[in-house]
Amino acid sequence: MAALLQHPGYPEEKLQRVAELLPCREVQAGMLLSLMGQPLQYCYPSVFIYGHRASGKSHVMNVLLKELELPHATVSCVECVSVAFLFEQVLLSFFGCDAALLLPRSPSLSDFVRVYRQQCSQSPSKQTRYIVIEKAELLRDTDANLLPALLRLQELVEDNITVILLSEIVWDKFRPNMGCFEPLLLHFPDYSKDELQQILSQNRHPSYSADFYSSYINILLGVFYSVCRDLRELRHLAALNFSKFCEPLADGKVKETDTHKLWRNIEPHLKKAMQTVYLREVSSLQWEQMQNMEEKEAGALRGLSAHTHVELPYYSKFLLIAAYLASYNPARTDKRFFLKHHGKIKKTNFLKKNEKTSNHLLGPKPFPLDRLLAIFYSVVDSRVAPTATIFSQISSLVTLQLLSQVSHDDQLDAPKYKCAVSLDFICAISRTVNFDIVKYLYDFL
Hints:
Oligomer: single chain
Strand order of the largest sheet: 2-3-4-1-5
Distance between the termini: 77 Å
């Protein structure tokens, strides 16, 4: 690797260290070293480095400048909410806080050039100074003269200085309409699967062998590589799920070489983590706590219907709620539950003495389609027209075996259905639409 980073201007030990810190980016680092030349030589005024997120642009530049001990200022356009912050950060890095204080309250580009020239004459540098601007695409939203000035800053300040722009978009979409000095372009390609395997395998846990951790990374990339090639996100996922991967090994159930059993143990956790790639809805600690809670509740979840994990459209959920109410409530109670101005109904008349057995113990009863739709229009939040979409969703619920049709297929005028889901399932569905179904069930009065 060091052979790729040979350069007459820098010690071989430092280049070897740089090569170790930049796996799979030796080619790009070597090209940058060629562009930068020796420390005392003048470098090209501006360099434009582009590539997708987490392709190593900032990391390569920071390692090169710090390990080779070159004077530099690293500025992020996300942090610098105004041009004044950018100017202050550059002067602070090169000349100290006294130089930054010389800028006026709202400095212009000419103020920055004037102060820089003044400080440069007082403390000249023999080596090339580098200004690294991260998230440079945000410069397009600033003053129109800022980007062209930065590209030829070496000429304006008459100093050996190079501006390096790091961006996620190509130069063709970056170039100003009025024209500007053309920088040198350098592309950082995405990491390949083998390169990601090599980089992620370096972060192995000291308690396990390198081959064991490499097999884990291979399984991780097999699941996530098609949807995520962001090195930082993959590194986060690898650290998050490694403890689950090692659980059978810690319990003594499998050996390190039994990859198939380890894969079967980690597969459901990786698929669940795939649903939240990039989102970071919870922290790593919260994710582990959620995983542990789900394992404790696994016994209860196994008793539920397999349809618990089915994701339904909005109105299909209310149709299923209406079907459950129609199956487990007597038809004579619909007036009490769903009619707003039903008048006074005495509880002694409402609850018949001979109805002592719970309807949930007797099982679901069939109901006609018109009763289902009547309850549906009563419980749904908004006014819904009886379109073909509603009827097609009823057919979809039958196909998913959440409803069962008990009438003959040739009985088109008044088909009858029964609800085929459990109370736990319908309560879970009701919570997703903020509907308290227990208040509308006859058995829970």
